[in-house]
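fyi for ur records
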Amino acid sequence: MNLADELLKLRDLHAKGALTDDEFAAAKAQVLAQERPAPEDSSTGAVERHLQTIALQNDIAQLDREWELARHTYMVTGRHGRRSIPSQGGSLVAGVVIALFGIFRTTVAFVITSQSPFGPIAQVFPLFGILFIVLGVGTSIHSFAKAGQYAEAERRYRERRSELLARDAGPSRAEKSMRDWG
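which gave:
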């Protein structure tokens, strides 16, 4: 059985539900990784090369889809529902601004309530400023950590994509196509 027949058989099993997505991908990779004897004629070799190119393109497309889905897990939601990738610098700046504003608000609340005729009950209001500081700085730390995780995940994605593209090193696709069909 040649490579094309094996791939068709795997595709049919996958379509019928006999293979899960992961099993299909593993079996396809195993079939493509098997060493093949030299093709007997050039048309078989051209088909083999085209199948390998298609398999590589599929692997790259799958990696890109997986990355796009994974990217969303690192996003944070803003005040108006807008989702974005956090940056470590932005997280630090936000943390400092929140802390400074919280300190200012707490100080003002303390000065105002210290003159209050309501006594100890009024002293509760400066505590809200402290709560604001804690929550704001905590959110900034969380955002900073997510930004670091995103940067690491993106580095791994780019590394894996470069490895896949390196598998296709050699003549350009146009040169391969002309060589195969010309």
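The longest strand covers residues 76-77. thats all i got for now
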